[in-house]
Amino acid sequence: MKVLVIGSGGREHALVWKLRQSPRVRQVYCLPGNAGICQEATCAPGDPRQIETLLAAAHQLQPDVTVVGPELPLSLGVVDEFTRRGLKIFGPTQTAAQLETSKSFAKEFMQRHQVPTAHYAVCTSEEELRKSLGLFSTPVVVKADGLAAGKGVVIAPTREEALRSGTDMFSGKLLGTPAASVVLEEFLEGEELSFLVLSDGERVAPLAPSQDHKRIGEGDTGANTGGMGAYSVDSLADPQMTEWLLNHVARPVVAGMKSEGMPYRGILYCGLMMTARGPMVLEFNCRFGDPETQAILMRLESDLLEAIEAVIEGRVSDGVFRWSRDASCCVVIASGGYPGSFVSGKPISGLERAAELKDVKVFHSGTSAHDGKFLTSGGRVLGVTARAPRLSAAIAKAYEAAAVIRFEDMYYRKDIGARALKPTP
Ligand code: AMP
Ligand code: GLY
User: Does 280 share its domain with 367?
Assistant: First the structure.
């Protein structure tokens, strides 16, 4: 079989790497890929945000199935367009992707289907925002409706700051484009959990649980990023918790989407806060997480292609995944300055040495190649990922590998997974 993966990040590198392990996959293409991906797949140039480009690539490469990495092509309806032309593709339709692309849609949907989530108010004007703010204690969470690459969420310590952020979301000052609505949300405290499930529109199968580290700084301080590291270990959600999350979150969402005429097929990423009142949904994503996927797929022992086909053919069952009991950890190495401005084009060394380490895989995100050398070409550059029977060993191994990699101004957090290792008081 021939598979086309759309995207160019660490998540897509992990997808390509895993799909290549399938005995049934003969060829993997990636559009556009990155320097690391292009060593393992045939890369096709093009802008993944242009549906016409993706259709032309599918026409030329004739993949048996296309797997979409990022949310943007999904939000533009790539699945609808491919399906209309009889092309097999993995991911939700444009309408189903609203669970990620519209915060107000997701919140209202959760309310209709009794999915646990924080109290909220959808505001469509500054006036409404001002009024609704009175209903919330501080800190209060302010979210711009629409895709914002992790930059659309502000945790405001005071109502004045919340009003300022909300106003900047409406005017477009905060994100570049004006938000049509702003969601106010009760601030939740607890540990975050990324609970991903595979759905064929009716049935779901959980992926291994994981935790992301969204802030740039150690101790979860500083600006929000796309994700600075992740780990996956079974103890993040024991079988009882997994069943609870399936029954109270994943299954009601999938049944609700079906009953509302927009069956959800693909990966449903449930971003949860594990609060004292129980798990609450912070957000849905309509795709694999990045960097969670790097950590999760490191633990997948069964064939990823089989799982993808089970979705397309409507036969997802508990048996589609087999997970290693090992834990895994992915440490993201970023360009200094990220998530603000940074300089690209820095030569990267140590990749060969890191590749020699056992049970380690370095996934590329923002890299390019020049004269046989790897250069940085993005904010998040590499995802150094390791697995081991114990989480502490997986973390140590990921850091051992990260330590042999060098580029000017590189930055990574030293505390990925550290909180999970502390004994609970
Ligand atoms: P979201 O894009 O909605 O997941 O928000 C990004 C990040 O902001 C989350 O991963 C949380 O760390 C934080 N966040 C979002 N909503 C809340 C909330 N209601 N309470 C506390 N933190 C939140
Ligand atoms: N790691 C968070 C995300 O993929 O949205």
Answer: no
The distance of Cα 365 from the centroid of its chain, to the nearest Å, equals 13
Ligand 1 binding pocket includes 271 (Cβ within 6 Å): yes
Amino acid 424: pLDDT: 57
CATH of the domain at 29: 3.40.50.20
Give mean pLDDT in consecutive 10-residue pieces for the chain, a chain of 425 residues.
98 98 98 98 97 98 98 97 98 97 93 97 95 96 79 90 95 88 95 98 98 96 94 97 98 98 98 98 97 98 98 96 98 97 98 97 98 96 98 98 98 97 69
* Owning domain of residue 374: 327-421
297 with 342, same domain: the answer is no
Ligand 1 centre from 24 Cα, in Å?
39
> Rounded distance, CA 100 to CA 140, Å?
21
Q: What pLDDT score does 138 carry?
A: 96
Helices then strands, counting H and E runs in the chain, come out as 15, 23
Q: Is 289 in the pocket of ligand 1 (CB under 6 A)?
A: no
Ligand at shortest distance from the CA of 185: 1
CATH number at residue 404: 3.90.600.10
Is the pTM higher than 0.90? yes
Total domains, the chain: 4
Q: Which two tokens stand for residue 318?
A: 């508990």
